[in-house]
Amino acid sequence: MNVAHLAPLAVVLPFLGAALAFVLIKRPRAQRRVSLGTLTITLGLEAWILASVWTSGPVAVKLGGWEPPFGIVMVVDQFSSLLLVISSAVSLAVLAYATGQGAADGEEGGPVSIFHPTYLILVAGVSNAFLAGDLFNLYVGFEILLTASYVLMTLGGTGSRVRAGITYVVVSVVSSLLFLIAIAMIYGATGTVTLADLAVKLGELDPGTQDLLHVMLLVAFGIKAAVFPLSFWLPDSYPTAPAPVTAVFAGLLTKVGVYAIIRTETLLFPSDRFNTVLLVVALLTMIVGILGAVAQTDIKRMLSFTLVSHIGYMIFGVALASVLGLAATIFYVIHHITIQTSLFMVTGLVERRGGTSSIARLGGLAKLSPVLAVLYFIPAMNLAGIPPFSGFLGKLGLLQAGVADGSAMAYVLVVGAVAASLLTLLVVARVWNRVFWRSTFDAEDPDPVLLATAPDASGIPSMRALRTSKHVDATEGRFSGDNEIHILPRMMLYSTAGLVVLGLAMTVFAGPLFELSQDAAASMLDRTPYIEAVLGEGAATP
Questions:
Q1: Is the whole model's pTM more than 0.70, yes or no?
Q2: Radius of gyration of the chain (CA)
Q3: pLDDT in tens, 391-409
Q4: What integer is the mean pLDDT of 230-236?
Q5: Long-range pairs for 306-309 at CB < 8 Å and ≥24 separation?
Q6: Quick check: 226 and 311 in contact, CB under 8 A?
Q7: Phi and psi for 369 in degrees, rounded to 5?
Q8: HSE value, Cβ hemisphere, 13 Å, CA-based, for 56
Q9: Which of 257, 312, 411, 491 is a plausible cystine mate for 285, CB 3.0–4.6 Å?
């Protein structure tokens, strides 16, 4: 049996782990071990699956033995298996980060105790969406992850989180309703919702009906992916959530929407009728998002706007509809999942160390915590696309694809992508300069935690102030040989460092990753391997 046939376990294992974690709700330590163990096993399984499909074609898993299009089918190809591995690796790092935070803060009960089972349900929903071989199962995956995200976003029940959660819920329900209506209309027009079957039957519909169904899916997925002008909800929703929740949301949830756009654009609607529209949308998403980031004074809001901006790069590659453009998009998606998540995790550490995420109130963190400065600098430069990082390589691939396209609109996108990249460098450099290198005492109304641990004239922080600060665990604060004080939980630091190293590994192994991305892109644009994997060899293909 092909290892890829074990793919449903990527969904089943997190569900089982969530059930066990819920049973252990009164035993936080055991709950944490179960959650971490479940994701570790799931990641190992998915890495095995990726290795098995690296050189083979797509593999369809027919649940219950029912033949498609009548039964539920899960499809594993290079694209979906690669996203499974990256999403689980990032989810594991964020879970370790959250575990370190919870252990340090002593949050043993109350609403925080439901974090672990809810988090595993979120992971199961993401995996189900990546593996879905029909539109309705894709819808179910979205609803699973969105239901879990509602709980995680409002965890703690503060006013700001509830208000942001309401906006998030309303927008998500609207997008899900549009998606469900589109599914009903597609089923009414074709008699099927299986993606491989739709790839053949949608082409038999008249162009007007195809365009209507196409637009409805694009709008539904565009809201979930935070594509301009459907991205208004994101900057107000993500920054209010707890640091681990914001990190995993920023890294994963919008990428599930991007995945759905890529899958439907390549498999269901391969025509170029909407490519120009997508190019315009990509340009506006890039520019409006990064201009919003320039105007922010809070690190979390700034990163939320850069998140929107960089979704535009992914839509750019999809709209080009070429192997190089799609390959660069796939590479950029896995790069961005890792880098954006690590930056939000670093921001959580900055907020914990300095008492705030406001750029105006922070300063001197490079002296107070050199490790934290390094953890920010590496992914920040990667996000800005500085050579030789993976962000530069992904953007270079997109620019090359735009130039190869040769159209006037593609050249406009190339210029826009370069401008957005330069502005990204500007905003991350501003944080680097003000938060890490400006003197603590030059900050506007610096937080008491920051002042309490800032070096005096002798360069030695006040340990008395450190021990009495309510924000600092005194057991974590101590002098080392170079007079640096460590007040951040080690597990939070180690998990963040691990994700930063993963981002660097994408640079080191960019060659094999881009080769895999090109193979995945060629297979998706061909469509025949996917259709035959689901419907059988010799099946009718468009």
A1: yes
A2: 23
A3: 999 999 999 999 998 899 9
A4: 82
A5: 306/340, 306/383, 306/424, 306/427, 306/428, 307/226, 307/234, 307/238, 307/250, 307/254, 307/340, 308/226, 308/228, 308/231, 308/234, 308/235, 309/285, 309/420, 309/424
A6: yes
A7: -150, 85
A8: 16
A9: 312
